[in-house]
Amino acid sequence: MTALRSQVLVAPNGTVVEHRALLTVTEAGGDATTTTYRYAVETGTVTVERPAWATEE
Prior knowledge:
- There is one protein chain.
- By secondary structure, this protein is mostly beta strands.
- The chain has one domain (2-55).
- 7% of the residues lie in helices and 60% in strands.
- The chain contains one helix and four strands, in the order E-E-E-E-H.
- It has one helix at 52-55, and strands at 2-10, 16-26, 32-40, 45-49.
- Strands 1-2-3-4 form a four-stranded antiparallel beta sheet, with no helix packed on it.
- The longest helix is centred in the C-terminal third of the chain and has 4 residues, at 52-55.
- It is elongated and about 45 Å long.
- It starts with a strand and ends with a helix.
- 0% of the residues are buried.
- The mean pLDDT is 85.
């Protein structure tokens, strides 16, 4: 797994609100999949999905 980009969203009071990352996962066969990962700090919600541009053929 390689992080292509990561970002932290911070509220005006300095509290971290969300962590975001754009990841590439390379399988043993060499195929790579790009996914986005989001973690909402307050709710503990994790979202992992493929960006629309990564699913286009």
